[in-house]
Amino acid sequence: MHSNHPFHFNLVAAAHAAMIEHGFQPDFPPGTDTELAAIQAQPALTAADGLTDLRNLLWSSIDNDTSRDLDQIEWAEQLPDGRIRVLVGVADVDARVHKGTLLDTHAQSETTSVYTGVTIYPMLPTALSEGITSLNENEDRAAIVTEFSVDADGTTTDGKVYRALVHNRAQLAYPSVGAWLEGTAAAPPKVAANADLAAQLKLQDTAAQRMGGNRFQHGALDLETIETHPVLVTDQIVGIAPVQKNRATSLIEEFMIAANGVIARTFEQAGLASIRRVVRTPKRWDRIVELAKAKGYTLPAEPDSKALNDVLLAEKQKDPDRFPDVSLTVIKLLGPGEYILVKPNMPSPGHFGLAVQDYTHSTAPNRRFPDVITQRLLKAWLTKQPASYSDDQLDAIAQRCTLMEDGARKVERDMQKRIAAVVLHPHIGQSYPAIVTGVNNYGTFVRTLDPHVDGKVVQGGKGLDVGDRVTVKLVSTDPQRGFIDFAA
After folding, report:
1. To pair with 75 at 20 to 30 A between CA atoms, which of 25, 31, 255, 355?
2. How many angstroms separate the CA atoms of 350 and 261, rounded?
3. Of 334, 366, 397, which residue sits at a domain end?
4. Are 154 and 201 members of one domain?
5. What value does the mean pLDDT take over residues 309-313?
6. Are 431 and 472 a contacting pair, CB within 8 Å?
7. Partners of 112 in beta bridges
8. What residues pair up with 300 in beta bridges, in sequence order?
9. Which tens digits make up the pLDDT trace of 336-345?
10. Domain count of the fold of the chain
11. Is residue 466 a contact partner of residue 476, using CB atoms and an 8 Å limit?
12. Residue 31: its pLDDT value, please?
């Protein structure tokens, strides 16, 4: 029966409890305000501090509609030989948050910002991450700039890194820029009002399309999982919507991957130890081969990302509704990404899913601690100072970052389930089209198609199998445990 009763469940309190449960300290320690005031009182860096002045360039940022912690801005130019020169500017967080301070120690413990859907637990106070260390529109900021050139075939060359002074001239968002680049909507107002900015974004898109094509030719995996975000009206969650990827998200992803590659190769060429981001060659490749065979495909006995991606593309075309489940299975068998210490002349495991060998994390220092470490190592090298951390310290930090990233995933997954249970509670008794996603000893599991919500069939369902299309009726929800139960 449809329920019209208001349902009260404190999602913010649940998020705070989930943070503690998974090893985080969601509240900043005593003394933070004093240290923050001292940081805010520091004079801003200028070109006189040895920074290359690039404020005249037409920099812009593209991020989520709701993002306030802007880590990355971009600029590109067409070269006479047909290549495209790309500059990626990243907020110089280390210029404000110094090693060994209270805020730095807290960030090293938390290692990441956590996005729960109802509140954000930032790694750094928002006065920094959304203020003076964010590349906010119309503000001068210190940045680490990574530069590279993109050939016609998508190969990146001429990588270099340096410190600079930058000025973000347009804060833009993925949905509107993506729709415009894809030709399905008019240009966003800031783009429509500035022909130079429009041309700039088109050129960046061309470079990104080249690079993406190059990576997929080398075996980057075209995986597609269903991500959702809560829909809010006057701070009340009223629904769940899928996160849409588009040309703008691809643009930023390609620039991010390329910049991280340049940084990793810079460390390698300089003979410096660093923290790398890796997804190892899958140990469970034999299981991936088995699953492909069950669907009528043949994979080689040895791990081959290009062959795997060919299978994924074929499967996506054949059954797009079930492709997210295939993707999720592959992701689980690949294993999670991790942070590791890579010493000079030591081969890196690389990133199997991205089809890149040299990869670190450097482009999100407001929200990830490994990126702050990368900045400190880079700046020490640029100024010919000793390395900021010993190998043992880097190894310990890498392990901590991997541990806490896993914790963040668990918090975010728990909260997605709770949010879905709260949103659906008023709709008990309603029916939804769904697809069966799992059948095992624990029961039969389905995903509704609109909204995308996972739940368990607790009544009926006998004889259902994975992939079956079915209509299910919502019978109950339990936000505390994140349970959603259906009848088939």
Report:
1. 355
2. 10
3. 334
4. yes
5. 91
6. yes
7. 368
8. none
9. 889 999 999 8
10. 3
11. no
12. 96
For residue 4, being part of any structural domain is answered with no
- Both 330 and 344 in a single domain? no
pLDDT tens digits, one per residue of 51-77: 999 999 999 999 998 889 999 999 999
Say if residue 52 is in the same domain as residue 74. Answer: yes
Residue type at 148? F
Residues 297 and 399 in one domain: no
Q: Containing domain of residue 23, as a range? A: 11-279+339-421
Report if residue 193 sits inside a domain.
yes
> Is residue 1 assigned to a domain?
no
Residue range 98-127: mean pLDDT, rounded:
97
Residues 188-221 have pLDDT tens digits of 999 999 999 999 999 999 999 999 988 887 778 8
Q: pTM (2 decimals)?
A: 0.91
Write down which residue in 421, 449, 474 finishes a domain: 421
- What rounded mean pLDDT belongs to the chain? 92
pLDDT of residue 237: 84
* CB distance 56 to 181 below 8 Å: no
What are φ and ψ of residue 108, in 5° steps?
-70, -30
Q: How far apart are CA 385 and CA 390, in angstroms?
A: 13
Q: Are residues 215 and 243 in the same domain?
A: yes
pLDDT tens by residue, 121-168: 999 999 999 999 999 999 999 999 999 999 999 999 999 999 999 999
Same domain, 369 and 450: no
| pLDDT at residue 400 is higher than 70 | yes
Q: Is the pLDDT of residue 1 over 60?
A: no
User: Which residues does 341 contact at the CB level (< 8 Å), separation at least 6?
Assistant: 273, 274, 275, 276, 391, 394, 395, 398
Clarify whether residues 120 and 217 are in a common domain: yes
Q: How many whole angstroms separate alpha carbon 345 and alpha carbon 273?
A: 9
